[in-house]
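Hi, here's the filled form for the chain we discussed.

Project: internal
Contact: R.S.
Residues: 87
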Amino acid sequence: MSRSVIALETKAGLVPSEALAPQLGNAVGLGVVASVVAASAASWSDNHSAATDALVAGLPAGLLVCAGFAAAALIVVLGALQSQPSS
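And the returned structure, exactly as it came back:
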């Protein structure tokens, strides 16, 4: 893609195609973490009475999901680094 097309896309508020994949990945990851936190908070609120306690109780589950994503990313990166030929 030429620089002039990227500059026009940027001025028009469009995202260059090279930046679309990380943004889409971040959106999907955020959606998964938010869903886990909401589900955990909902199950906690069914068993306990205080709504604020239920919201706070869902956060550790989201943190575990984030840690899982980080561990998976580390495995992918290490695998990609090992498969590259040394120069």
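Let me know if anything looks off before we file it.
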